[in-house]
Design a protein that fits this description.
The protein is an alpha+beta fold. It is 30% helix and 18% strand. The chain has an eight-stranded mixed β-sheet. Helix 3 packs antiparallel against helix 9 (295-305) and helix 7 packs across helix 8 (264-275). The longest helix is centred in the middle third of the chain and has 15 residues, at 123-137. The chain starts with 14 loop residues before the first helix and ends in an 8-residue tail after the last helix.
């Protein structure tokens, strides 16, 4: 077996000698000059052949939240389920998990179609579309056909329809489409989406809270060493307040903390965030804290999620 990384792992042929070397499709760590050598090596290689982790950059409402932008980069085990990925995202963004969620593999042609329609329609047409959507679905917004929708196993959550998450079901119909296949988050692994040809390089989105519509763009930025746990490697921006009233509410809250002399309404909002919000912060957002985030604390909690007792800074 060759010790040269730029040579066939079995016969030792270099790329010049074999014309082309192909990497193992799963682990990306071993090269082969052809199918024959790969087949010959499989019995020995399969025990150590594991897909590397994905490095995923997840950005919250990238077009709307910009000062500062709020994102986290996570190293994610490829064989983790989307349910586990959801739990890691809740920790990374300090969400309180009081609402339901889904993941969507979006169809670029459908995204372009909707964008073109919105760009060309008049204000009157936009209002009429909103009214029609409210009548048909009970919520605003178009029904978008996606390549795949991954949904929460029990979207009602504890307490049934009236128990927090259940309220989000009122907004669920606008996210469904008769031509969009749906699968449960506990039954789909990351590699089954990120490595599958039909989904690879397609826009991937995570949405939390169907009322405030906290959409997160997910971008594959690289691969990392194989681990059995999630780890946060980078990020920016304070976690957004849950139930603040979508992006406008978050911008108003930041404006309140920036105000030299906050008015009564602003003081009330600040007090709510510091004492009542489900994922609030007692220290508030003053003195530039809207840019603060705690990677060490995130990784400590991710460690607990994986059942690993370690210290992080």
């Amino acid at each position: 077996m060759s010790e040269t990384t730029n040579a066939c792992a079995v016969c030792g042929k270099t790329e010049e000698e074999s014309n082309k070397l192909n990497k193992c499709a799963r682990c990306k760590a071993r090269n082969y000059c052809g199918k024959g050598c790969q087949t010959k090596d499989w019995d020995a290689h399969k025990k150590s052949c594991k897909r590397p982790n994905y490095l995923l950059k997840i950005t919250l409402r990238p077009d709307d939240i910009t000062d500062p932008q709020v994102y986290r980069t996570l190293s994610c085990p490829s064989d983790s389920t989307f349910e586990a990925f959801y739990e890691a995202l809740q920790i990374a963004f300090t969400w309180a998990s009081t609402h339901t969620f889904d993941f969507k593999v979006r169809d670029p042609t459908e995204v372009a179609r909707i964008a073109a329609e919105e760009e060309n329609e008049t204000q009157e047409q936009s209002i009429m579309k909103l009214i029609q959507s409210l009548k048909a679905n009970g919520t605003p917004g178009p029904q978008e056909r996606c390549l795949l929708r991954i949904i929460e196993d029990d979207p009602h959550g504890p307490g049934g329809f009236t128990g927090g998450k259940g309220i989000d079901i009122m907004h669920n119909s606008s996210r469904q489409h008769p031509q969009t296949p749906e699968k449960k988050a506990s039954r789909v692994k990351l590699w089954e989406v990120l490595d599958k040809p039909q989904y690879k390089d397609m826009p991937l989105e995570y949405e939390y809270d169907f009322g405030d519509c906290w959409t997160h763009a997910i971008e594959l930025v690289g691969r990392s060493e194989v681990t059995g746990f999630f780890k946060c490697t980078d990020g920016q921006g304070h976690g957004v307040a849950e139930d603040v009233g979508s992006t406008r509410g978050w911008e108003r809250l930041k404006a309140a903390y920036r105000a030299a002399r906050p008015d009564k309404e602003q003081r009330s909002k600040m007090r709510w965030f510091e004492t009542q919000a489900s994922n609030g912060d007692r220290e508030g957002l003053g003195n530039g804290r809207e840019r603060s985030w705690a990677k060490g604390e995130i990784n400590r909690r991710l460690s607990e999620l994986a059942g690993r007792a370690q210290s992080f800074t």
